[in-house]
Amino acid sequence: MTKTVKQRLCGGTFFTLFLRARKPLHGANEYYTGNPEPYSEPIALFALSKVIVPDWKSIFVYADSTVSGNTSEYKTCKNEGGSIYPFGDDAALIAFGERIKESYPTALADMCKVIGLLVDTGSMKKDIRLVKELIALIEVDDSIGDSQPFYSLENGDTITKADLLKAKDICLQSFLLGVWYFAVTRSERNTFGKETINLWCPSTGGGKREYKGNLANLITRNITLTYCESFGESVDAEIVDEPLVDEPLTGDEPRSEEQSAEKEPAASNLTQQVINNNPTFFNFNISGNNNSFYNQVDTVNIKNGGQKDE
Question: Which of these, 41, 57, 231, 293, is most buried using a 10 Å CB contact count?
């Protein structure tokens, strides 16, 4: 008899779907010829960590194997990502809750920047697919009650699961912020989604595990996205001299103590301009790891810039 897997929303399942909406990756060939990968999984998870704790310490002072391994383990819901990430830090999560409830515009501004840096909002409609997949996951996750509030309205108010499942006009950044907040602060730990990951990304006996889910197909209604516009200075992202290649979903090989040892950050002269052709977002300047990820943002405005998914 086939076991029915109850799909769950948690930090790892959110992150897995979020990665599917990234801008096109450079690929291994360009990486080995010296072109960095600005959209790697560690950079993406570090950016999302900064939405939780804006001054969270850089993860890139650790060995590459530690950063890649911990990122992969969080994505596959094996643990909370270790101490290099804030997901298992109760104080960090409490502070995130206070930020959402008392300083929502600043958290929203940071999520705007993360999406501007990483998410493909172009003609491939990866952003709409991401929203549909997350709405479908919220719908099928029966551990989330219909009255569960999500801080997913651009003014900082909440919307219940029941109303969210009926919504046709959604602000991308505030929606992702509210779902991310719920996913990382719910009482169940990240391991809650391990069976979901195994369903979506079946084992290949040690090879790369591809996503095989079909969540987006469960949402048949048209959804129109709107986008936030944040105003402030350009943004610096902390990366290392040799940006990390994504760790494939493979077996459970333990890392040695030597691999997990902390290393000194190398000096970096790398500066890369990441241009976003969507005028509602910033341009992002990625530079060496002596810089901080975010500068101060003063205001967030909302613009209707979405396109209907036919």
Answer: 41
| Per-residue tokens: 18 | 């979020």
User: Amino acid identity, residue 137?
Assistant: L
Low-confidence ranges of the chain (pLDDT < 70): 1-2, 27-36, 230-310
The verdict on pTM exceeding 0.85 is: no
Q: What is the DSSP letter of 62?
A: B
CA distance 264 to 145: 46
Which amino acid is present at 193?
G
Q: Could you tell me the end-to-end alpha-carbon distance of the chain, in angstroms, rounded to an integer?
A: 38
Which residue stretches of 148-285 are H helix?
A: 161-164, 172-185, 194-200
Tell me how many degrees the CA angle 157-151-136 measures, rounded to the nearest 5.
Answer: 125
Cβ atoms 135, 175 nearer than 8 A: no
- What the block records as the tokens of 222 is 């048209």
Residues listed for the chain = 310
The alpha helices in the chain, defined as continuous H runs, are 11-19, 28-32, 41-52, 64-75, 90-102, 104-118, 126-140, 161-164, 172-185, 194-200
Q: What are the tokens at 307? A: 């396109």
Residue type, 20: R
**What is the predicted pLDDT for the residue at 32?**
53
Phi, psi of 22 (to 5 degrees): -65, 155
Q: Which amino acid is at 121?
A: T
CA–chain centroid gap for 242, Å, is 21
The bridge status of strand 284-287 relative to strand 272-274 is antiparallel
- Nearest alpha carbon to residue 9 among 111, 141, 198: 141
CB 26 within 8 A of CB 37: yes
